[in-house]
Amino acid sequence: MDEPPDKDRATPTSTGLDFYAALPTSADFSRLGDPAAYVPLPDDWVVGVADIVRSTAAIEAGAYKQINTVAAAVIAAIANGLSGKDFPFVFGGDGAGFALPAARAELARTAMAAVAGWASEAFDLTLRIAMVPVATIRANQHDVRVARFSPSPDVAYAMFDGGGLAWAEQRMKVGEYRLEPATGDAARPDLTGLTCRFAEIPASRGLILSIIMVPAPDAAPERFAALAQEIVALGADGIEVGSPVPPQGPDLRWPSAGFRIEAKVWAARTGRALWSSRLSVLLRSFLAHLTFTTGIRVGRFDPRRYRAELVRNTDFRKFDDGLRMTLDCTPSVADRIEQRLRLAAAEGTARIGTHRQGAALMTCFVPSASRSDHVHFIDGATGGYAAAAAMIPGDAGDDSDRA
Fold first, then answer.
1. Alpha-helical regions (H) of 174-302
2. Do residues 374 and 309 lie in contact, with contact meaning Cβ atoms separated by under 8 Å?
């Protein structure tokens, strides 16, 4: 996302958002398996984490699209509060993480609390939220380091290293640093640009494989880095494996499978009754459907250009104190990847979790359809990262009863 000038650019030594904006970007994802590619965040920043309690039960009830929407809502609410200024964040399927300068911490607290309150009211989902100073994380022998990955010239996603986000999430799950959800009118986050109109994306090569790989407690960093590069290489064969998003983009149907979810997003934004929000979403999505179907430009919006940008701007792979990938691959490639991961787990290099499914989901954050910096979060359609995380031995997972 573009970053207009703001008060964070006051001095060359400022530790505001200009620190992140000034970091170089890399288009080589495999390079980001190397810890040397990452830069420590300033001590006066804070880390925020969020995750949905007992998401496995919600997955079994067929509510994973709602879960993805709530996780992406954390990012959207903060981004809207920052008026589009770029900041480091990561989408985790059933949760999210981010970092901000301390001067922006109250904005993030308010946004997260609003999303947590809205998630409870709109979907009956419990979203845990917490915020931890980076200095506190370092005092507990972990770090928060970031790098920027550009899958296209239009966007850059944050990659995280150092174990700090994972530590913050673990402490949140045992009740530390927790924030309370908002209630009443305060539980109405600004979710402008958050949409979920695209249909499930069926696997074209055989299956969608969700992968989570995190360092084992005593693993040497260089061994884990080498393993990450090996797994990335296995997941980079353009013939048997690749992004779940087809070259023409996912199908757009009307009414979309997620229109009721989007109506709840619209109701949060506008304060309208749910029935009125449903009518509004149906009408607006119908007009969008016509635009995409006919390919006709509307003002500055070119649907063909948008689809091409969408394909490039997805986050189907990321480093988030470990490696996460959502791959469309053949069963034989999935077998090879899982075999190598099991060997790495047996050697004590990594803790691993995988999940196979037949389709992927896309959740979109589009602050302005006429711009090219829209971002698109990819996950598996029937559990994805949440189901993979539940397979990691010794992990508290998403189903801790400590709500």
1. 221-234, 259-270, 274-294
2. yes
* Phi then psi dihedrals of residue 208, to 5 deg: -105, 120
Mean pLDDT of 220-225: 92
Q: Can you give 274-292 as a three-state secondary structure string?
A: HHHHHHHHHHHHHHHHHHH
Read off the pTM: 0.88
Tell me the C-alpha to C-alpha distance, in Å, between residue 255 and each of 250, 259, 288. Answer: 15, 7, 11
In terms of Cβ atoms closer than 10 Å to its own Cβ (0-12, 13-18, 19+), residue 394 is: exposed
Q: Alpha-carbon torsion 68, 19, 311, 352, what sign?
A: negative
Q: How many CA atoms lie within 13 A of 355 on its CB side?
A: 25
Q: What is the 3-state secondary structure (H, E, C) of 32-46?
A: HHCHHHCEECCCCEE
How many other CB atoms are found less than 10 A from the CB of residue 260? Answer: 16
The whole-angstrom distance between residue 69's C-alpha and the CA centroid of its chain comes to 10
Confidence class for position 348, pLDDT limits 50, 70, 90: very high
Read off the tokens for 143.
Answer: 């770090």
For a pLDDT cut of 90, what percent of the chain falls above it? Answer: 66
Higher pLDDT, 86 or 84: 86
| Count of CB atoms situated within 10 Å of the CB of 65 | 19
